[in-house]
C-alpha cells in the first residue's frame, strides 16, 4: 500500500470550555485534493491551522511523509506546507516583492525569470511591478497563490480562498487553483462551505460536524449523504 | 483668592487648590461623557489616588530627606516595581506583561539613573536622587505603557499579515518588525516633543531645577535639559527592551502567534466596528 503523504492522527484542539477539533484523523495521498466541508463553526479552518502548526494541537499529531511534524522545524514545515488564507494579506510593496518574500526568509533570492514564471502560472503575466495595494480581490488572491508557490511547497492548505470574492473573480481563482495543483502535483487541502465548489475541486471530501469527522469519501457520496441526512 | 484667605494655613491652602484643580478635571470628564467618551470613573479614581498618594509621599519625603543616602536605591527600586505594575495594567491579558514592564523599566530607568549618578550628573543626596530618579521612572513607565498598548493594537490590526508571513516560513521576529518599530516610535514621541519644545512651549519644573541647583537660573535651565535628555534616554532604552520582550512573548516556542486580541472595553464596540 502506498504511504499517505499526509496523515492526521487524532488531531484535537481545545480552548477553555470548548473542543474545536475533536480527534480528527484522515489521510491524504500525494497530489490528491481533499475538500474539507462542513457548516459554519464546524472547525474546518481550525483544523487547517493545525496542519501547518499555526495553532498547536492539544493532542494528536500530523505525519508528513511518515515523519511526525513536531520533529520538523516550524519554518521548514510551513515552507513545505504552504497556506492560502480567506483574504490575500499581501504585504506593502510590489507584486514581485511579495513573491520574493518567502524564499528571502531562508536567504534565497528569486530571480526575475522565476517571478515571471510564477505570475504567468496564475495568469498575471506582466504584474511584477504593480503595487500590491492596487490589485482587485481576485488578482490579490492569485498573487497570494503565486507567493505560496514561490516556496516550492509539497502541499497547499487553502482556507476558503474564494469566499471573499465576487462570482467572476471566484471562477478565475478556481481555474488558477485547478491549474497550479495539477501542474505542481500538489497535495491540497481546501476548506469550503460551498458544496458545488467542493465537487468541482476535490477528489475526496471530509465532512466535519462539531469538530468531528462525520464522513469521508468521494464528493458524490459525501454530499449526497449529507443532503439526505442533514442535522 | 485662595492665597489671601488661607495664607496662614499651608495644608488647607494646598487641599483647597487640589479641590479646584480636581473640579476642573472632573468638568472635562463630564463633557467627555456627554460625548460618549467614558472616562469619568477613571478620572475620579485617578484624582483620588493621585491626591492620596501625593499627600502620603509628602509626609514620607519629609522623613526621607532626613534619612541616610543608602535608602535611595531601595526607594527607587520600590518605585520601579510600582511603575511596572501600573504600566502592565495597560496590557491586561498580554502574556508576562508585568515581567516585561519590570525588566524594561529596570533596564531603562535603572541603568540611566545608575550611570548618571556615577558620572555625577545626578547628585547622590536623597533630596536630589529620589526626585530626579522618580521623574525618569515615571516617564519610563508612561513610555512603556504606550509601547505595550501600541504593540498590541498593531499586532491585532495586522494579525492576518503576521500569520501569512509565518505561513511563508518567516521567523516570528521578522513578522512583527513593523509593530515593534511603530510601538517604539509612538512611545518616544512625547519625550522627543518635550525636548524639542523645551523653553519655547513650556518650562517644566524649572523651579525644582532651580532648587536642585541652589539658585542659578541659567544652571537650572541647563539642568532641566539634562533631566529631559535623561528622560528620553531612559524611556528609549525602556521601550527598546519592552518591545523586544513583547515580540518574544507574542509567540510560542513552536513559532505560533499566541498573543490574543485585546479585550474590547465596554463602550468601545462602536469604535471598533467603525474602523
What topology emerges from the helices and strands here?
The complex is a heterodimer of chains A (231) and B (275).
Chain A: E1 6-15, E2 18-28, E3 33-37, H1 44-51, E4 59-64, E5 67-68, H2 74-80, E6 81-84, H3 95-104, H4 112-121, H5 137-149, E7 155-159, H6 167-184, E8 187-192, H7 195-201, E9 204-209, E10 212-217, H8 219-228
Parallel strand pairs in A: 3-8, 3-9, 6-7, 7-8
Antiparallel strand pairs in A: 1-2, 1-4, 4-5, 9-10
Helix pairs in contact in A: 3-5, 5-6
Chain B: H1 2-6, H2 10-34, H3 40-65, H4 71-88, H5 97-119, H6 126-157, H7 159-167, H8 172-175, H9 177-196, H10 206-212, H11 217-249, H12 269-274
Can you offer a commentary on this structure?
The complex is a heterodimer of chains A (231) and B (275). Helices cover 36% and strands 26% of the residues of chain A. Chain A is an alpha/beta fold and 231 residues long. In chain A, the strands form two sheets. Chain A has a six-stranded mixed sheet with strand order 6-7-8-3-9-10, sandwiched between helices. Chain A has a four-stranded antiparallel sheet with strand order 2-1-4-5, with helices on one face. In chain A, a hairpin with a 2-residue loop joins strand 4 and strand 5 (67-68). In chain A, helix 3 packs parallel to helix 5 and helix 5 runs parallel beside helix 6. Chain A is globular, with a radius of gyration of 17 Å. Chain B has 275 residues and is an all-alpha fold. Chain B is 76% helix and 0% strand. Chain B has helices at 2-6, 10-34, 40-65, 71-88, 97-119, 126-157, 159-167, 172-175, 177-196, 206-212, 217-249, 269-274. In chain B, helix 5 (97-119) packs antiparallel against helix 11 (217-249) and helix 9 packs antiparallel against helix 11. The longest helix of chain B has 33 residues, at 217-249. Chain B is globular, with a radius of gyration of 21 Å. The A-B interface holds A 52-56, 74-76, 78-79, 82-83, 85, 87, 89, 91, 101-102, 105-106, 144, 147-148, 151 and B 160-161, 163-171, 174, 252, 254-257.
